[in-house]
Structure formats: structure tokens, C-alpha cells
Amino acid sequence: MEADWEFEVGGDAPIIEAHWPGFVDLREDLRRAAELTEARLLQGLADALVRMNATNSPVWTSKTDVFDPGRLDADELDATREEAQHAIACYVDLLMRSDQQWNSQFKAEQSCREVCARLREIPLRCCRVDLVVRRALIEPERDDLGATAYLTACGRTDCDARSRLAECLAAFAAAIVTGLE
Fold first, then answer.
1. Could you tell me the residue ranges of all domains in the chain?
2. Tell me, what DSSP letter sits at residue 81?
3. H/E element holding 12?
4. What is the mean pLDDT of residues 57-68?
5. 178 pLDDT exceeds 90?
6. Which tens digits make up the pLDDT trace of 103-121?
7. Contact yes or no for 18/25 (Cβ under 8 A)
8. Maximum CA extent, the chain
9. Cβ neighbours of residue 67 under 8 Å, at least 6 residues apart?
């Protein structure tokens, strides 16, 4: 699987707002993941959200969405042009649990490098994960760091792309839960 990471923490860079209007705290009731509109649009998303919000996970999620990534470079997804006829993407905002917080950019970088290395070992083509470390507002008047994970997949058909993204989500959730610190 293709995977990479970057920082976007300064200037006008987007900020992860943890408790946005409409926020559903899946840590309180994991069953609510299946009720999210995005989870109904994308097979595998509810399962990934449940895994990432479970008590044994080092992260929790604050927001997700499913979208059409538009034009993409097949090479960036380890795909042929024929395999890149259709594409689908989603993002998930990830925040560290209070006992696991990234207290420095160095710690965030180290964690992202480890997750990306783990993902690159997975023999899964036609998809990629990009982690973007961002400032996060979890509590008023306190800046933290979080990450937005962008997951993209492609296929010869829309069904193929969706199926591949479901596989990508499962692999990503496993890599996060077993290795992010």
C-alpha cells in the first residue's frame, strides 16, 4: 500500500475541530458508527471507526467524510491507468487519547513515519493513505496535535474502487490500533 505523511500546522492551515456541531462521540457508543451517513455510503467505514474508537485504540475520531477525489495519478496508487478509471476517497480526523497525546511535533512525526512504514508493508495495490498532522482544538484554549487521514482507492469500476477502499480502511485501522503512539 502507498502511504505518506506531512505537516500542515502553520498559517492558514486547516485545524481539526474536535467538538464541531454535529459531532458524534463514538467512544461513548460504538454502535452509532453504523448510523453515520458516511458509513452508509462506504462499506467498511463503520467497522474502521469502531476499531479506531474502541477503548484499546490510542486514537479517537472526530469527523469523517466520503468524497470523489477527482483526477488522480494512477502511479500514486500503484495502479495501471485501466485500474484507475474510478476512484473514491474518505478522510478521518484522528485525535490521540489523553494518555497518548502527541506533546511535540517530533512525537507526531515519529508516529506517522511508523504507521506509514507499517502500511507500505501491506501488499495492497490501487490505494493510498496520506496522514496530515494538524493543530487540533480538543479543549478550549489548548492547542493539541491531531492528524487527518486521507484514504483513496481506485478500480476498473466504481464497485472495485469501493471494495478496495474498504480493504484500505481495514488495513489502516489495524495499523493505527496496533502501532500508533
1. 2-179
2. T
3. none
4. 96
5. no
6. 788 888 999 999 999 999 9
7. no
8. 49
9. 88, 89, 90, 91
